[in-house]
Amino acid sequence: MPVDPNGLALGEDTALVLIDLQTGILALPTTRPSSEVLERGVALAEAFRAHRLPVVLVKVAWSPDGGDLPTANVDRPGPAAAPPAAFSEIPAELAALGDVVVTKRHWGAFTGTELDLQLRRRGIHRIVLAGISSSVGVESTARTAWELSYDLVFPEDATADTDADSHAHTFGKIFPRIGKVSTTDEVIAALHP
Predict the structure, then answer these.
(1) Percent of the chain with pLDDT over 70
(2) Contact, 110 vs 146, CB < 8 A?
(3) To bridge 111 with a disulfide, which of 50, 106, 171, 179 should be the other Cys (CB 3.0-4.6 Å)?
(4) Residue 21 C-alpha from the chain's centroid
């Protein structure tokens, strides 16, 4: 496989994993308009599909009775009840037949899900990871992926947070230590058949 000028080398062992680009999360106030994040997520997904590379859409959802909501004695708890089903809907412009859809119940997409199995059975060693929010779902997923020895690429412009300082910390301090920070255009340009 030829090496691209950005050093990303995105070939047949690469998958796109998009975190929480779903109705309820996209409605949150974010550092970058969520409409832009969704638009870039769609562009990435279309490019990956065109190269016949896996697209994984991760959403967060809980049982209607809320019995699987995370419980912890924390200062800032999460939801006390499960949101309505519409909260977890993936927008029609993003979803496509053949995508892998993973439902998580924690911040990170690997905890308690089949994400690692889905990736490894497809021969994936490299993940392009984006979504909302940078410092929570995306970073939690990234840290576990790095510990599982996946190579990581983070298109910064396809990612947002609800807090500017958290986003800056994640992209300035954490992601450069566990992967390559990039842009949507650079990732698309680096895809090889």
Answers:
(1) 96
(2) no
(3) 106
(4) 8
Dihedral (CA of 97, 99, 105, 107) sign: negative
Q: Which residues pair with 151 in a beta bridge?
A: 126
Digit-coded pLDDT (tens) for 120-174: 999 999 999 999 999 999 999 999 999 999 999 999 999 999 999 999 999 999 9
- Dig out the tokens for 161 from the structure: 């947070």
Taking the complete model, does pTM exceed 0.85, yes or no? yes
Q: Looking up tokens 């779903």, which residue turns up?
A: 22
> Nearest Cα to 150, choosing from 184, 189, 180?
180
Which tokens is 53 given? 């590379």
SS3 186: helix
Burial of 136 (C-beta count, 10 Å sphere; 0-12/13-18/19+):
buried
Rg of the chain's alpha carbons, rounded to an integer? 16
Q: What number of H helices and E strands is found in the chain?
A: 7, 7
Burial group, residue 177, by CB count within 10 angstroms (0-12, 13-18, 19+): exposed
CA 177 to chain centre: 18
Q: List all residues 6 or more positions away from 38 whose beta carbon is below 8 Å from its beta carbon.
A: 21, 26, 91, 93, 94
